[in-house]
Amino acid sequence: MVQTDSHQIEDRWWNLAIFLTTACTLGIVLVSHYFGYSVLFTHLFYIPIVLVAYRYPARGIYFASLLGLAYFASDIALNSPMPSTCPSVPGGARPAALPPVGEGGGGEPVGQPRG
Q: Which of 10, 44, 53, 81 could form a disulfide with 25 if both were Cys (CB 3.0 to 4.6 A apart)?
């Protein structure tokens, strides 16, 4: 099936939007991470992830994993080698280093009684 010019233009706009939101998000997260704000700005990753998952449904999980690995790498690179809350992970990276992929867990099994 041959794409018309309007479809190609639409694809270019989607790709440009995905690229710009990803670049801006990574830039903001790296700067905020450098200054010690690591939790608040990671939620900006949802914007490019939703764009990719909407436009390319089969590639959404791979893109989210890639962004999560980029965040994990920035956490290791920008944190000093001081002891962290999770000593088994180097550089102060936390187990939730993949926030776009691992969000939403409650910590308790579903259907289990409390207490």
A: 44
Residue matched to tokens 């550089």? 91
Q: Strand, coil or helix: what is 107?
A: coil
The CB density around residue 98, as the number of other CB atoms within 10 Å, is 18
Q: How far apart are CA 22 and CA 29, in angstroms?
A: 10
CB 42, CB 22: distance < 8 Å = no
Amino acid at 19: F
Left (φ > 0), alpha (ψ -120 to 50) or beta: where does 26 sit? alpha
pLDDT tens digits along 4-25: 677 788 889 999 999 999 999 9
The residues spanned by each domain of the chain are: 8-80+89-97
Task: Look up tokens 């690591």; give the residue.
Answer: 38
